[in-house]
Fold:
Amino acid sequence: MLNQLFVTKALNQVLAGPVDALLRAVHVAPANPAAPINNTFAMELLIFVVLVGYFLAIRTSLSVEKPGAFQHLAELTDEFVDDQSSQIIGHGHERFASFLTALVLFILLSNLLGLVPGFESPTADVVVPLGLAISVFLYYHYHGIRVNGFGYIKQFLGPVWWISWLMLPIEIISHFARVLSLTVRLYANMFAGDLLTLAFFSLIPVGIPLVFLGLHLGVAVIQAYVFFLLACIYLSMAVSHDH
Amino acid sequence: MRKLQYLFMSLAALLIAVPAFGQGSDAAAQWVPLAAGLGMALAAGLCGLGQGKATASATEALARNPGARPGIFIFLILGLAFIESLALFTFVIIFLKVHA
Structure:
């Protein structure tokens, strides 16, 4: 690792030994034993710590009479997630609120972290959006099976039985394509935003690239919203009943 | 007749271009920036057309029926995201191929 960020360097100084031992225990040889933690993972860990701290702060300071600043923020987030998911999923959407809130906050924070000097977006690395997309994939299939039982397979077989041999492969491929498109959309947007700012920075090193940072801010928020919206829609399709 | 004329013209252009196909992989590498730029320009331009149509319809619908704002907003954002992801697929493919 040539350019380690500050947080990565600090993490590597403290944790290089244990992480190396852990990786060797699962038979993975770290590329650079002195610095097994890369920037992406360090940023992810940072966001994880911040989010857990945020949720703990909310949980310990909940009060009906005197709502604090954290509680107002949390109520705002919850209202947004609840409103959107009730609009899309409808009945029984409260069950998914925790997953969706964690998802939208994690993606939003990771996207916005790239705008802070000295940090970078973990979502600009392809593995993080892939992990998020796979977790969404597993989550909505789990809930589809939980709600519909074995009848969940009916969603893959098309409207009439004699076309099912054609619909089943198409549906399976399209469900895997959802993972691909979720991953590439988030990754490419974040990555292209960073690249765009860099490209204009190499042309004009003063002032103008700031405009593209502003554009990147908008893209970061929109992409977090789109990811959340698509997760909602996939969930609503999976848990819908055929009448 | 006009169609045949076009066909022969394009065939002649391809005939002229044959030496370009015949070159080795070293000579092909010089076309990579051109191909990347043209591919991205096509993708971006058509994506812009598509997004323009989507946004135009959404604003028209909003002007006709301002009450339907939330529904239209969700579909607009979704449509824009799907259209944009096609351009982004092109970007990713170009990035992978150029850096390979």
About this structure: Chain B is about 90% helix and 0% strand. The helical segments of chain B are 2-22, 25-28, 32-64, 69-99. Chain B touches chain A through eleven residues (CB under 8 Å). The first helix of chain B runs from residue 2 to 22.
